Amino acid sequence: MTDLAASRRVHISLTYGASDFRQFLWVKGDTLQLQRVMANLLTNAINHSPRGERVEVILEPSSSHQTVKVTDNGAGIKPNELPHLFERFYQGQSDRQAKGSGLGLYLSRQIVEAHGGTIWAENRQPTGATFAFRLPTLPYNSSYSA
């Protein structure tokens, strides 16, 4: 995603709070499919962000779920589009240059739900959007450490 972000002059930052990343941000899942979800959410955030803005990835651990939030400072989501964002082939109205197939968010929802999770979107105030998903926690075991 760094090449796309650089071409759009968008900075990507990662925040995971005071947690011990290796110990508390584990989920059980298909690495390739979860990477696809992250790529879809990041691509959308970068493409909807004005030049010079920031896209933030926020990792929030809890005892039962891990939450990933991708936030941007773009125009936000029109209220009438919110219920349709994760539908197959849905493309919201936008003045952005990059157009997609309308499958990215749909496939992301399918992947997250197949992993026992949930995915959602919401507007930020005063501008921008947050796309987030939550997956069940994989209990920490020191044998998982790399």
Describe this protein's structure.
The protein has 146 residues and is α+β, with helices and mostly antiparallel strands. The chain has a single domain (2-139), classed as Heat Shock Protein 90. Helices cover 27% and strands 24% of the residues. The chain is built from four helices and five strands. It has helices spanning 2-8, 21-24, 31-47, 104-114; strands at 11-15, 54-61, 65-72, 118-123, 129-136. The chain has a five-stranded mixed β-sheet. α3 (31-47) packs antiparallel against α4 (104-114). The longest helix has 17 residues, at 31-47. The chain is globular. 25% of the residues are buried. The mean pLDDT is 84.
Please supply descriptive tags for the structure shown above:
alpha+beta; 24% strand; Heat Shock Protein 90; single chain; five-stranded mixed beta sheet; 27% helix; 146 residues
Map the helices and strands:
Elements: H1 2-8, E1 11-15, H2 21-24, H3 31-47, E2 54-61, E3 65-72, H4 104-114, E4 118-123, E5 129-136
Parallel strand pairs: 1-2
Antiparallel strand pairs: 2-3, 3-5, 4-5
Helix pairs in contact: 3-4
